[in-house]
Amino acid sequence: QVQLVQSGAEVKKPGASVTVSCKSSGYTFNEYYIHWLRQAPGQGPEWMGWINPSGGTKYAQKFQGRVTMTRDTSISTAYMEVSRLRSDDTALYYCARDSVSAPGAVFDFWGQGTLVTVSS
Amino acid sequence: DIVMTQSPLSLPVTPGEPASISCRSSQSLLYSNGYNYLDWYLLKPGQSPQLLIYLGSNRASGVPDRFSGSGSGTDFTLKIGRVEAEDVGVYYCLQTLQTPYIFGQGTKLEIK
């Protein structure tokens, strides 16, 4: 069965960086885009960007320059680094697989979420 | 950016009764290929988001047939035929026509 398993919760100080990992299993990792989204406390979900099978990326303009998405196909794992963390980056971060059976972005499987807390 | 507007924001429903959620976009989500780039997700407390409907009206695998999506262009609706207790949570529409992909504000469905 398809699974996306994310790394554990993180607590960081303002200005630091955090990297969240997302390990996939149960499908051919090389054939799918991975998207990253987040949900801040009391807010709706927010799309951050994607990484395609070739390693190409597309980031929401809001995160340009602060977010880096990478993938290691040898271990079926995607990564997202957020740098220069601020308190308003405190959120539950998700990775999600993009279904290839439909046009557009369709997030058919999600990781369990990684809580990142930014606090001094 | 495309603006997504949902209504209502709160939806108390008696079990067994139908429910309907509206989602409007600031520009048409109908692409030249005939697809509407509008999806619906459900966020339940303590769980990862769940895909319900994609491309406006296609039910995702494993989603009960009491859920249906309709609409085109800028106006979309998610309907629940007969609400069950397990349907509580926050429902979001999402446009994926252009980046940044934007969610609606969410509609919180609760059981009366």
Please sum up the structure shown.
The complex is a heterodimer of chains A (120) and B (112). With 120 residues, chain A is mainly β.
Descriptors for this entry?
A: 120 residues; mainly beta; 0% helix; globular; B: 112 residues; four-stranded antiparallel sheet
What do these coordinates show?
- The complex is a heterodimer of chains A (120) and B (112).
- Chain A has strands at 3-6, 10-12, 18-25, 34-39, 45-51, 57-59, 67-72, 77-82, 91-98, 107-110, 114-118.
- Chain A has 120 residues and is mainly beta.
- In chain A, a hairpin with a 5-residue loop joins strand 5 (45-51) and strand 6 (57-59).
- Chain A is globular.
- The N and C termini of chain A lie far apart (40 Å).
- The relative contact order of chain A is 0.32.
- The model of chain A has no long low-confidence stretch (mean pLDDT 96).
- Chain B is mainly beta and 112 residues long.
- Chain B is 0% helix and 48% strand.
- In chain B, strands 2, 4, 5, 6, 9, 10 and 11 form a 7-stranded mixed β-sheet that branches. A 4-stranded antiparallel β-sheet of chain B has the order 1-3-8-7, with no helix packed on it.
- The mean pLDDT of chain B is 97.
- The interface between A and B is medium-sized, with 23 and 29 residues.
The overall average pLDDT of chain B, rounded, is 97
Bin the strand percentage of chain B.
over 45%
Number of helices of chain A: 0
Q: Kindly name the structural category of chain A.
A: mainly beta
How would a textbook summarize the main sheet of chain B? Answer: 7 strands, mixed
- Taken in chain order, the helices and strands of chain B follow as EEEEEEEEEEE
Percentage of residues in helical conformation of chain B: under 10%
- Which sheet architecture does the biggest sheet of chain A show? 7 strands, mixed
Give the helices and strands, then pairings.
The complex is a heterodimer of chains A (120) and B (112).
Chain A (H helix, E strand, L loop, with lengths): L2 E4 L3 E3 L5 E8 L8 E6 L5 E7 L5 E3 L7 E6 L4 E6 L8 E8 L8 E4 L3 E5 L2
Chain B lengths: L3 E4 L2 E4 L5 E7 L12 E6 L6 E5 L3 E2 L7 E6 L2 E6 L8 E7 L6 E2 L3 E5 L1
Parallel strand pairs in B: 2-11
Antiparallel strand pairs in B: 1-3, 3-8, 4-5, 4-9, 5-6, 7-8, 9-10, 9-11
